[in-house]
Specification:
The chain is α/β, with parallel strands linked by helices and 185 residues long. It is built from seven helices and eight strands. The strands form three sheets. It has a four-stranded mixed sheet with strand order 5-7-6-8. It has a two-stranded antiparallel ribbon with strand order 1-2. The chain is globular and about 45 Å long.
Length: 185
C-alpha cells in the first residue's frame, strides 16, 4: 500500500486513508468497484482493520521488507477467486465507473492477455487488468528478482488501453498541494 508524504519516521500515513471530501481515498475507489465484484481485494501491510470495511479481503505481502506494489499484486493473483484481477492504485480517487467498465470490456477468456492503461507514450501499470492464468509467470519473474509490474506485463502481449494524457481520472495524489487542488475541484 502506498504511503502518504511525510517527514515522520514511519514514512507517514497510508495514502488510501488520506481524506478527500470527508472520506478516505480507498472509499472513493470502493464505491465504484464494490458493486461490480464479489471479490474486492485490498493489498495493505498495515491498518488492515481500517481497510477491511471496503473489501471482501485484505492482503499482506509475503515478505516483511515491503518490496513495492508487485508483491501485493502477486498476492492478489494468488488469492483471486475469479480468472481476472483488475488493479488500481489507492492514490487515484477520481477513477470512475466508465473507466472500470471500459477496462472490463477487455476480458477475453478465449485468449487471456493483460491490459494496461497508456497515456500517450506513458504506460500506467497500476491501472491494469491481469488474467490469473499468468500467476506462474509472475511467480517466476518474482523469483528471478523482477520487481517491475510494467516489465512483466509487457512480456505478455499487453493490450494498451488508450487514455488522454491529461485524463483526470488517472491523477495520482502525492502531495498536500495536489490534495488541496482536488478538494477545490
Amino acid at each position: 500500500m502506498a504511503r502518504w508524504w511525510s517527514g515522520l519516521p514511519d514514512g507517514g500515513q497510508d495514502k488510501g486513508l488520506v481524506l478527500l471530501h470527508g472520506k478516505p481515498f480507498i472509499a472513493h475507489l470502493a464505491e465504484i468497484v464494490r458493486p461490480l465484484t464479489d471479490d474486492l481485494l485490498i493489498s495493505c501491510n498495515r491498518n488492515q482493520p481500517m481497510y477491511a470495511p471496503y473489501c471482501n479481503q485484505t492482503l499482506c505481502d509475503d515478505t516483511q521488507d515491503f518490496p513495492g506494489p508487485l508483491a501485493g499484486i502477486l498476492k492478489g493473483l494468488q488469492t483471486a477467486r475469479h480468472p481476472w484481477l483488475m488493479v488500481f492504485p489507492c492514490d487515484a480517487p477520481c477513477i470512475d465507473l466508465a473507466l472500470v467498465q471500459h477496462i472490463a470490456t477487455l476480458i477475453n477468456d478465449a485468449k487471456p492477455r493483460p491490459a494496461m492503461i497508456r497515456q500517450g507514450t506513458q504506460w500506467q501499470p497500476m491501472f491494469s487488468l491481469i488474467p490469473t492464468a499468468l500467476l506462474p509467470a509472475f511467480e517466476a519473474a518474482w523469483q528471478s528478482g523482477e520487481r517491475s509490474l510494467m516489465t512483466i506485463l509487457k512480456q505478455h502481449d499487453v493490450i494498451a488501453i488508450e487514455c488522454d494524457e491529461n485524463d483526470p481520472r488517472l491523477q495520482n495524489v502525492n502531495t498536500p498541494q495536489q490534495l488541496h487542488i482536488l478538494h477545490h475541484n
